[in-house]
């Protein structure tokens, strides 16, 4: 089994990297009892154990209840161990390369090692304060079931209590579950919180407690157990599955065994021979010779008897070696984490194998009475570099009642990392449950990115698109290389949106026409963007050999693209590649609009014509037009069509046609030189602007007719096609349901009806318009025609760096378009990299009440708006149904009424079936009998619930809840 994900929160180390630094530094986390646990001064009648130091985590009361959709009332009643597990499990899934919500419905099992239920012991004996949430918020089973419920996992879900070996036994059971095919992935956890001095007193009375609260495993100064707390989670998969999916592997569990001491010289006394049997069985099942083991992460409580028996049991299996096994225990750093002790040792061993470094055990000189060398061991007193090749290790955990576990591990298989192109255009994504959390998570990802190796930036970004998705508030940035993405993150944090995910954007794609081309256009994009490069290569192959080389060769060489025979195929190829990239990513346009030759790319991207047919027509079109005699001219005039008729006359023998109507006062004329010049003089004389265009021919005019017959014959060979997305035609009025050869022939001489098409486009109500082309031309024309929308350009023109398309993609994702980023990143970038775990809000705390610190759990919040609302019977006057409903929701959930906006989802507020019944009880005194079954379909949002009651009930003036 492969360990593919890790998260932990241990004393002095709130993250995995902090834990690793603590191990390397040899720090010991023991300290005095925090003031929020118990006050030793009030227990002077207890002889000893109440003020013994231990290793505590910081701020155990903080919990991001909103993230998990848990109401304040439920969060206050929950065992805080469950809260720690929820957050650590989420981050471990991220570390394994999953967006946790993507696991919904999967056969993922949950196995939690836990031996403490002190929160329940305190609160379930407060009979007068009992609530439904206290009942469901406590109990070992819920420690695992919470994770399965919130992630919607369908595999086995269980809590394991074998005392000190609980979490390592949980890991062994998870491996068995995976091996049996009952699950495809397993979340294995261990958790422990020290909320009372009960076990401290027990250890002291049993003669097991270290006076200074420190474990000193296998050391001469070993004098007992020092307690510790924390949470650790690992993600397991079958090795073959993990390798096939390219997951990061910390270590491999080759095999393991669990057994009992049976009858020994006391229920709590260890049994050397039973321990040896478990270790021996683990090696047999793993197929690993004990003499091949490099180090053992021992149970190592630091008690004289316990250490002696453990070393002799290990010696029964390992003695006789030529090179000693290194022996250590994480308890020297963290203390004895009881139910979480095994997972802490497992995580330390996995990190050591992955990083090929074994941190030392800061316990002091080894105990000579243990005779470690005679038993084949040496105390791992200092940091040791592990040898090359496959390294094997053992992890032991022994339970107070006699349940023992041992796992045999090996270092991860070495897999080659694909070579990366430098400076790839990348998109980085982040999502969060709240706007405040979004800012914190963007900052965390930004800092991690700034420290990433440059050649791995694209892999880092790809991982973000796999892991950091699925939550309400979105952020994304695009750019080339680490520095650009870091700078974009800095800018983004200053401009984060205030609302959650908007309604699905309606995207229109506008394809630029001739005149936007320039030498070297899209060359930076080709170099830096794999997705665009792939599609431009397709287009280049379809276009074939052009004058001077292939399209790709011409663009990269910076060739002159002004000749029509090159300009039209070049524009088509570039726009096809841009548009196809967006559609393949998942953009589903509500409209496409193409200006002149841009319409070929629009129809082709919409699958209304094949790439081969479109390329053949565009090459022929450009070649035939270029072969026509020169002498034509074109003019852009700021006049309406009606004004044009009054101002311009045409002399006999001249040609002057309307080539395009781009807006209410934007017309393009095309014709013979003399006619165009005369028209320009007349328009300017009327005080209007008229600008000559740099063109080789008078396009979209009667001067194109000499090439029409040959082009029409070719176009008629192309069968009719129906675009998959609405094409707002600039040739014929309306949306083109079918495009055939006659359409393309008509387009040659006919005017471009852009203004008319744009007016119809407004009916599609696009929220975003993306101009697909080498420089923005159409966005300005559309800005005054369409209602408020977001304008995005795939390229700014000659100043393009190649990162602009990535920024467009990031903006679309940020605004709510769901994209498949695997189509953006090349295979070499689709490698999982380690990202920082989700940064949870820490502004809300739930702990013991301020009254006496023991009697009840109560929310402690730093935000005044989150204070719990009053319950039933307060007599608060209400002006109507809205006030009554909000007060009732607040009463049963604990949310402040100010937080209950109409769009708030009730399930995200933690509104469950029990609360629904209480909600009815709250309202019936004011409204009368309610039918809960009729109410259930309306339990979606706060606004929907209010609307339901406004439709079905009349509220008496002065009613209260």
TrEMBL record:
Classification via SUPFAM superfamilies: ACP-like (SSF47336), FabD/lysophospholipase-like (SSF52151), Probable ACP-binding domain of malonyl-CoA ACP transacylase (SSF55048), Thiolase-like (SSF53901)
Record domain Ketosynthase family 3 (KS3): where: 1-411
Stored InterPro entries: Ac_transferase_dom_sf, ACP-like_sf, Acyl_transferase_dom, Acyl_Trfase/lysoPLipase, Ketoacyl_synth_C, Ketoacyl_synth_N, Malonyl_transacylase_ACP-bd, PKS_assoc
Claim: Transferase is one of the keywords in the record: yes
CDD domains on file: PKS (cd00833)
Carrier domain location: 879-953
A Pfam family this chain is assigned to: KAsynt_C_assoc
Keyword Cell membrane assigned: no
Domain of life: Bacteria
Keywords: Phosphopantetheine, Phosphoprotein, Transferase
Annotated protein name in UniProt: Type I polyketide synthase
